[in-house]
Design brief:
Layout: H1 5-111, E1 113-114, H2 149-154, H3 157-164, E2 171-172, H4 179-201, H5 206-220, H6 230-266, H7 273-284, H8 286-423, H9 460-482
Antiparallel strand pairs: 1-2
Length: about 475
């Protein structure tokens, strides 16, 4: 049975519209399926990004806490070093005071003249160095015990030497100090001080090294702004997904309508011109719908790529964190070594400081001994002056006795001679034989075993200077005690 002419031209056109609608529907389904897969993948990717970011943040926070501890260690080392520096500076101040005081007393000893008579025949030894002297067998003056006191006063070899000597050639108290021993004390002091500096220098760069390592690790940590907002990305996918779903629903509905129309046409239904125009118009809108679908699919893919990039970046940051953790472990080992080394240095420095304190005590003892040495010498000058006064007074007294004895003896001799001249001739010779004896002549001499004392000459200006300085020292000492 033949179909009507209008139906023969209508049916191929409907078939074409159905095929186009079917093709658009399949393409739309593919785009929506891909978009759905991307959305699901994006959801999983967002979970992965959040998980990775959480791990990165947790590691970062843990690293920052460890860096705070490391910074505290650096500050602790720096504080201990500052305390050690403070002790050393305090010691340096005391050292400067002690050595300056020692230099001053040595200069003062160098200005104190020693009369030649005090050492040229001395048989003793000095404070440090020995002054070898001659004994009696090798030329030291030995005084005759029978020599008269007046001759001793008139002929004193020390007096002659003192009066004729040139003071520029005199020795000073410093000449009797063992300068080598003093230099050895100061050299050992300086050597130990240099050793202390070398020991302290070995850890001087520890705080700076730790700070640099801490800064390097801190700079390698990721910033919190690197991760994009997952919520914004997922929200950005929501609207395109809904729009694609609506478009897919429209494509499905349009295809079903066109398929039904084709079935009706095949069943003999004849569509009017207006129906055909509506079908054509709906079909002509398919390209614009497909374009929007593709645009929304690209939008979803773009947001998915952002999540993929964020996941990749998070993985890279997490991988970088492993390097950071390795660096942190290495820093921990370095800190342990530094702390042990710093403790060893502190112990060694404390031992050196204790030794240096003992050496300062030696310097202080030298200073005290030199002051006593100088003071005792000044008192020695005063004592020699006092003894000279005593010696001269005794010698004058003895010489007076001697002269009086000689006068009495001479007077007695004259009396005896006069008696014998007047009466001796009338007395038989065998009566009182002693009547002819002269008077006993007396001589005053030192006790047996003693030698006559000879004192070195102390010129009056030296004696007055010694007395004056001793008086000043006594006043100063009294003032110090009262304070």
């Amino acid at each position: 049975m033949a179909s009507p002419p209008g139906q023969q031209t209508e049916q191929p056109h409907l078939v074409s519209l159905v095929l186009r609608s079917k093709k658009a529907l399949k393409h739309g389904q593919q785009l929506c399926s891909k978009a759905n897969s991307l959305s699901n993948a994006s959801a999983q990717c967002s979970v992965d990004v959040l998980t990775l970011d959480a791990k990165v943040k947790w590691i970062t926070e843990a690293v920052l806490e460890q860096l705070k501890l490391a910074a505290n260690v650096a500050k602790s080392i720096e504080h201990k070093r500052a305390q050690l520096d403070k002790q050393v500076k305090a010691w340096d101040i005391v050292r400067s005071q002690r050595t300056e005081a020692l230099d001053n007393i040595l200069e003062s000893l160098g200005a104190q003249l020693v009369p030649p008579g005090f050492h040229q025949s001395s048989s003793g030894s000095s404070l440090f160095g020995s002054q070898h002297s001659l004994d009696g067998k090798n030329g030291n003056t030995v005084f005759n015990a029978q020599q008269s006191p007046s001759a001793t006063v008139r002929d004193n070899p020390f007096d002659r030497h003192g009066k004729s000597a040139d003071r520029s050639k005199w020795k000073t108290l410093r000449d009797f100090v063992d300068e080598i021993a003093v230099e050895n004390v100061l050299d050992k002091l300086e050597s130990d001080r240099t050793r202390l500096d070398d020991t302290m220098t070995s850890t001087y760069d520890y705080p700076e090294t730790l700070s640099a390592a801490i800064s390097s690790i801190r700079e390698s940590l990721p910033s919190s702004s690197n991760v994009p907002s997952i919520e914004d990305i997922l929200n950005a996918q929501q609207q395109p997904s809904e729009l694609m779903a609506r478009h897919l629903s429209s494509l499905t509905s349009h295809y079903e309508q066109m398929a039904d129309a084709l079935k009706e046409s095949e069943a003999g239904e004849i569509f009017g011109e207006e129906d055909l125009q509506d079908m054509n118009r709906d079909t002509e809108e398919l390209p614009s719908i497909m374009a929007e679908l593709e645009e929304q699919a690209l939008s979803i893919e773009d947001t998915h790529q952002q999540l993929v990039a964020a996941k990749t970046a998070a993985q890279e940051r997490l991988s970088a964190q492993s390097i950071t953790l390795d660096n942190l472990d290495e820093l921990g080992e370095i800190m342990s070594d530094m702390l042990q080394k710093q403790q060893d240095v502190e112990n060694e420095c404390q031992e050196l400081l204790d030794g240096l304190q003992e050496r300062l005590l030696i310097v202080g003892d030298l200073h005290h001994r030199f002051i006593q040495y100088q003071t005792s010498f000044k008192k020695l000058l005063v004592e020699i002056g006092r003894r000279r006064q005593y010696k001269e007074a005794v010698e004058k007294f003895i010489e007076g006795i001697f002269l009086e004895l000689r006068a009495m003896t001479e007077e007695e001799r004259q009396v005896r001679e006069n008696f014998n001249a007047e009466h001796g001739r009338h007395i038989p010779e065998d009566i009182c034989l002693c009547i002819e004896n002269p008077p006993t002549r007396w001589e005053v001499v030192p006790r047996e075993g003693d030698v006559r004392e000879n004192l070195p000459e102390v010129e009056s200006d030296l004696l007055e200077q010694a007395k004056e300085k001793l008086t000043v020292a006594d006043v100063s000492s009294a003032g110090t005690e009262s304070v």
